Amino acid sequence: MTCCGPNRRRLLAALAAAAAAPLVLPGSARAQENSLRATDLEVVTITDTSAIITWTTLAADAAGAPVPVDAGTEIRLAPADSTGPARTVAVAADRTPYHYAQIDNLEPGRRYRFEAWSDGVRAVPAPELVTHLPGAPECAGEFTTLVAPPGRLLRTLALCNDVHMGEETSGIIAAGQPPGVRQEPGLPPYPEVMLAALLDDLRRPDRGADHLILAGDLTAEATPEQTRTIRNRLDAWGIEGRDWIAARGNHDRPHTGADYAVCPAVTADHYDCWGESFLPPAQFSEHRLGGLRLIGLDTTELDGSGGSIGPEQFDRLRESLNRDPDRPTVVFGHHPVTAESGLTNLAGPNFVLNRTDALTLQQLYRSTPGVFFHHAGHTHRNRRTRPDIPLRVEFLEVGALKEYPGGYTLLRLFEGGYMVNFYKTRTPDARRWSTRSRAEYLGLMPEYTLGSTADRNHVVLGDLSGLS
């Protein structure tokens, strides 16, 4: 088995080969009758004291096709160096096809072996590369908890992107291909399901997010209704600038057409409904959160999906960074920055921030020691990429909220550094939709978007003791 991860060429080849074929959704393949399968095993989250494991149970229907089926949820766990049998540590009260098991009270820096079970059937990973990489916990049956940075936990940011409020079909790239996935009849629209699950999650004690950062694509097409809907949802949850802060994505850009003419005009034929409820185009934003400087960038272009930063935004950014270069700073914007991101995302180099602006931005970071983290969305995947020049800045793309893997990242700031953890949302409807949307990209969605265990969960040491 190759250990090389999926790349754009492989994905495009698969899409081209299958463009004329009917979409294969879960439940359409043959399966043996009277069988229960526990599949799609993923060790999604590993913190210093907890781990979250998800999987799906399927059984044959009357025609022999696999369909989601309710089953029990059980995790058996033991230290990896122990000789005794693993003991049951987590059992869910509800029976479900969409299993989500959180294991708490683990020891930092400890290696554990685990088993996930449903009604006597052990869960296994799906036949995909991302969970079969060397050392992948899904195949090894083991994981190692992180060791948190030294010092007190100071503040927790929830990093989120790509809500696509108002969208009805998920997973289409261009010209109606590949075939997309729609919500099941009778269930709420999936962007509303996923946003509600996010907002519910963040204030639970085991998440404890202080602030929500939304890095663009809050809407599907920035219509007046879509923009008002998500603004109302966020306002009902918290206060802008204190509880949540948003930047524009390419789907939120000014649009043309009669449906948009009720919104402010930014050109002779472009109308900005998103800006009416949030920020005007090309708007730089800056907030102070207990000593942390949080900078939001509008990286969108008037027409198209690529990214750029205008001279006025660069001037304001340069002024802010030069005024206080050592202040701990997190920057967020929709488009990824690095050349590596351009070369590895499905849509290619023109999909990310243009090279000139990306290098200018990174050169600003090089002269600003306080900048330590840059959050982007747009690619719908979990991935850390290398800067183009020597920098001590992490560039992290976070998986989309609106579809598989269907979650957000917690950035926990300690006096001695930070810890990054990706979480799937966990309400029943959110788990159901996340599983259904695995079928996107002709079933290759997990390969492209889940990311490696280390991309999703890691610790970086550094001095953040000046924060409060």
From TrEMBL:
Q: Which InterPro entries match?
A: Calcineurin-like_PHP, CNP_phosphodiesterase-III, FN3_dom, Ig-like_fold, Metallo-depent_PP-like, TAT_signal
Q: Which residues form the Fibronectin type-III domain?
A: 37-136
What are the recorded Gene Ontology BP terms?
carbohydrate metabolic process
Q: Which UniProt keywords apply?
A: Hydrolase, Iron, Metal-binding, Signal
Q: Does the entry feature the keyword Methyltransferase, yes or no? A: no
Read off the SUPFAM superfamilies from this record.
Metallo-dependent phosphatases
As one GO molecular function, the record gives: metal ion binding
* Residues annotated as signal peptide: 1-31
Q: Return the Pfam families for the record.
A: Metallophos (PF00149)
Q: Which PANTHER family match?
A: CYCLIC NUCLEOTIDE PHOSPHODIESTERASE CBUA0032-RELATED (PTHR42988:SF2), PHOSPHOHYDROLASE (PTHR42988)
User: What family, per the record?
Assistant: Belongs to the cyclic nucleotide phosphodiesterase class-III family.
Q: Spell out the protein name for this chain.
A: Phosphohydrolase
